[in-house]
Amino acid sequence: MNREDLIDRVLREGERQADEVEIFYVRGQGVSARIKKGVLGTAEESETWNMAIRTVRDGRIGFSSTGDPDRWRECLDAALASGTIAAPQQWGGFPKSAAIEGTAYSADPNLIVEIEDAAGMVRDLLEGAAEHPVEVIGGAADLARSYLGIANTGGLFYGMERTVAAVSLEAIREQSTGYEFDASPFPADISARATGEMAASLAARSHGGRDIETGRYDIVLSPIAAASILGQILLPALSGRNVKAGRSFLADKIGEQIFDERLSVYDDPSAPGLGSATWDAEGVPTNRLIFVQQGVLDRFAYDLKTGYRYGERSTGSAVRPGGGEPGIGVHNLFIDGPRAGDVGEERAVWIHDVVGAHTANPFSGDFSVEISNPFWMEGGEQTEPIRTAMFAGNAFEMLRDIGGLGKDDRRVGRLTLPSIRLCDQQIIGT
Length: 430
Known about the structure:
The protein has 430 residues and is α+β, with helices and mostly antiparallel strands. 20% of the residues lie in helices and 38% in strands. It starts with a helix and ends with a strand.
C-alpha cells in the first residue's frame, strides 16, 4: 500500500468513529559515522517511519503513534480509546487546506545520504583537530533526509522535505576539554575541518587556566552560551500555554519594555534553517512573528489546542519533537539588534558554553551554570584561559541592559543570535 492510499484509508476509517482525524507522518533515512579512540570507528545506516494520529470527538482529543505502518489500525484504535478518557475542551476544528505562500528552505536537493560522505566528514573533523596537540575523545558526522506529511479529514494534505548535515568533535588536553559542533540543512554551510580545529583549539588553549576570584565582571556570552541559557528560559516564557497557566514571567507584560531597546526577538519560518516551514505541525500556515520589538513585548506563541481553549488564534507555532504530539515551539528564532563596535574590545570574561542550563527556573528566569572554556578577552582577542567557574543571575534582568551585540551571528539549533556583552554579572570562583 503506497503512502497516499494508507493515509486515505486511515482517515476514512477514523472518520466513521470520530468527528475529525489528523495524521502526521515522517519517513526518513540517515547515516552516521562516529569517532572511536581518535579514528573513524562505526558507521551505520538507518531508516525511520512514524505515524501519529489525533482524533477528536465531542471536544475530546485522542492521540497515539506507531513506527509500523502495518499496525495503523491498532494505532487508530488507541487514539480513539485515549480520547474517551480525555477531558473535553473548546475545539474549533483542524485547519482546512489553504493557499501556502513562499518556500521552505529546509532541504538541499543535492545532499547525498551515503556512509562514504559521512566518513569523509569525519576525516575532515580529524584533520582539523590534528592542528593542535590534543587527544580526540569523540565525535560524529550525520547526514539525513526525511519527508514530513500532514493530512486531516477536512481535506488538508501537505508535505515537505527536510535534510540535515551535522558534525561534532570533542578533544582533551590533560584536564582541559573542548567541544564544537555545527548543523544545517545545507552541507555547504558547514565545515567539518573548521569544527574539528575549533574543538581542538579550545582544549589546547584552555590548558593551564588560572582561577578567577568571585565577584562581578563584564562578560561576553558566545552565541552557544547565550542560546543554552535563553533556550531554557526565554522560549518557555513566550509559550501561550505557559502564559495562560500562569507559568510565564512575561504573562502580564504585553506592551511593556521588558528588554534593552536594542533587542528584538522574532520567529522567521521563511529563513533558511533547521525549522524552516511554510506550515506548522498542525497544518496552520506560518508567518513571521515578532515577539519583542526594540525591547517591547508584543505577543506570545499559540498552537490550536491552546488557542481554542483560551480564545486566541494559532500563530502557526506548533512543532513536533520526535514526530509525536504537537506542542508550542519556534521554527527559526532570531535574537537581533543593531551592532556597534566590538563587544570584546574592553576587558571582559568570554564564555564559550555553559553546563547545567537545564536547571534554570523558566518562570523566574534565575539560573546558576558552570562556564566552559572561559577566557579573559581584551582588544577583541581571547587572551588568558580561566579555570572553570560558576555564572549566576537572572535571564530577564540581564537582558534589560546589555553592553552590546556582536557581529558573529550563529545558528544554534533553531536559534540564531550573536555574542552578547553583559555588564556587572556575578561570577563565582571555584
